[in-house]
């Protein structure tokens, strides 16, 4: 898409503001990295939420703070939803944009003291520095420079910060779906890939428990009276794994197998935990149907299998609408001196939930980072000014739907 002539000086102005904001960005990032905010560290996540809320309110966002029920037996932090009205009505071309980041990390309490925020040349280190505190702070920085530039040509900006993304967002997912209602576009703030690419697609995931029920018998005296659930489960493992390669972009994995309790009893029960990942809803449906079909035909006489879906998250599909968003981002990138492509990933994030509501979604709009979920996690702070300017300019471009 060709940019209107006014956009070149706008991009340059936003880049200049972003460079001027760099020291503040690093201060904010260091402050957040110093807080232990693992998914199950509710108090730590809420300390991050306090800082994010204060930042949004300084920018004239109204902020809703939503307490959540326990997830997976643990207390989680709160969700934040910040909203700021622009000066364009939807009827006049204004668009509602959702920005999404998460406040939790994968690290236990004590990690921030053990590996405090540090800078070594252009690389920042510390727990969550890339995933996702670097992206979270980039989103706040982009909002700040837009406000500094007086840019309000949008209908509404919505800033979503979740507390449990690293454990699959079991508690926050309904709130995320509500925040996505009415949005025209969504920009997810996970950091860009190590080569600078954005994320155009994420696989969806569904988890299943397959319970195989057989019949116990004395393994030495009358084994013929038994029906061996372990044997049926073994055949089922082979059948499920053999489904790999049937559909493009679909993988199945039997991750856990449990069976039996004693040497001398014909095994009466077994359990399989199976994961399906798919790039498309249609692939997910096809694989689920095939899994259920395999379970309906146990090989061992006298056994039966029940299938229970434990959790699911839709794919963030590579769509024509998300490709158009990518094209607009790439046009802005060229004007800022950036070149990047887009990639698909098997990892799941809040972008999946948002895209599952039908909102065109683009992810990876934070700075460049890598080694997520490891002690070596890093963020290239030299990429921050251009990436924050890219995000801010993309918000301005998409928010003014009159240029669609």
Set out the fold topology.
Layout: H1 7-20, H2 22-33, H3 42-58, E1 62-66, E2 79-85, E3 96-102, H4 111-114, E4 118-120, E5 123-125, H5 133-148, E6 156-162, H6 173-180, E7 185-188, E8 191-192, E9 198-202, E10 204-213, H7 229-241, E11 250-259, E12 269-278, H8 281-295, E13 304-313, H9 320-336, E14 342-345, H10 350-356, E15 361-362, E16 366-370, E17 378-380, H11 384-399
Parallel strand pairs: 3-6, 3-7, 7-15, 8-16, 9-14
Antiparallel strand pairs: 1-2, 2-6, 4-5, 5-17, 10-12, 10-13, 11-12, 16-17
Helix pairs in contact: 1-11, 2-5, 5-11, 9-11
Describe this structure in words.
Strands 1-2-6-3-7-15 form a 6-stranded mixed β-sheet, with helices on both faces. Strands 4-5-17-16-8 form a 5-stranded mixed β-sheet. Strands 11-12-10-13 form a 4-stranded antiparallel β-sheet. It contains 11 helices and 17 strands. It is 34% helix and 24% strand. A hairpin with a 2-residue loop joins strand 4 and strand 5 (123-125). It is elongated, with a radius of gyration of 24 Å. The chain folds into 2 domains: 7-202 and 315-403, Zn peptidases (Aminopeptidase, 3-Layer(aba) Sandwich), CATH 3.40.630.10; 204-313, Alpha-Beta Plaits (2-Layer Sandwich), CATH 3.30.70.360. Residues 1-5 have low confidence and may be disordered. Helix 1 packs across helix 11 and helix 5 packs across helix 11. By secondary structure, the chain is an alpha/beta fold.
């Amino acid at each position: 898409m060709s940019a209107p002539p006014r956009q070149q000086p706008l991009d340059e102005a936003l880049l200049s503001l972003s460079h001027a904001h760099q020291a503040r960005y690093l201060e904010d990032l260091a402050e957040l990295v110093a807080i232990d905010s693992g998914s199950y560290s509710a108090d730590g996540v809420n300390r991050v939420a306090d800082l994010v809320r204060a930042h949004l309110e300084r920018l004239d966002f109204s902020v809703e703070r939503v307490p959540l029920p326990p997830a997976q037996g643990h207390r989680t932090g709160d969700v934040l939803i910040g909203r700021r009205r622009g000066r364009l009505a939807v009827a006049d071309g204004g668009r509602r944009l959702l920005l999404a980041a998460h406040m939790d990390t994968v690290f236990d309490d004590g990690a921030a003291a053990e590996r405090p925020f540090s800078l070594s040349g252009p690389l920042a280190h510390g727990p969550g520095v890339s995933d996702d505190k670097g992206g979270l702070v980039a989103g706040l920085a982009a909002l700040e420079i837009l406000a500094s530039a007086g840019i309000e040509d949008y209908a509404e900006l919505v800033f979503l910060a979740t507390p449990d993304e690293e454990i699959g967002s079991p508690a926050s997912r309904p709130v995320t779906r509500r925040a996505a209602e009415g949005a025209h576009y969504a920009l997810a703030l996970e950091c860009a890939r190590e080569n600078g690419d954005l994320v155009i697609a994420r696989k969806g995931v569904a988890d299943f428990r397959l319970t195989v029920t057989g019949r116990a018998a004395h393994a030495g005296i009358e084994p013929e009276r038994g029906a061996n659930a372990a044997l049926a489960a073994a055949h089922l493992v082979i059948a499920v794994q053999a489904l790999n390669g049937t559909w493009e972009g679909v993988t199945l994995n039997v991750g856990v197998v449990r069976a039996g309790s004693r040497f001398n009893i014909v095994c009466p029960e077994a359990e399989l935990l199976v994961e399906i990942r798919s790039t498309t809803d249609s692939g997910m449906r096809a694989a689920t149907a095939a899994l259920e079909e395999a379970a309906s035909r146990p090989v061992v006489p006298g056994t039966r299998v029940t299938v229970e879906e434990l959790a699911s998250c839709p794919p963030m599909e590579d769509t024509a609408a998300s490709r158009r968003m990518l094209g607009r981002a790439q046009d802005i990138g060229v004007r800022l001196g950036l070149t990047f492509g887009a990639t698909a990933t098997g990892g799941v994030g809040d972008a999946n939930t948002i895209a599952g509501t039908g909102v065109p979604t683009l992810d990876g709009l934070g700075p460049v980072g890598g080694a997520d979920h490891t002690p070596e996690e890093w963020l290239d702070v030299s990429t921050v000014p251009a990436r924050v300017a890219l995000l801010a300019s993309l918000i301005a471009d998409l928010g003014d739907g009159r240029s669609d």
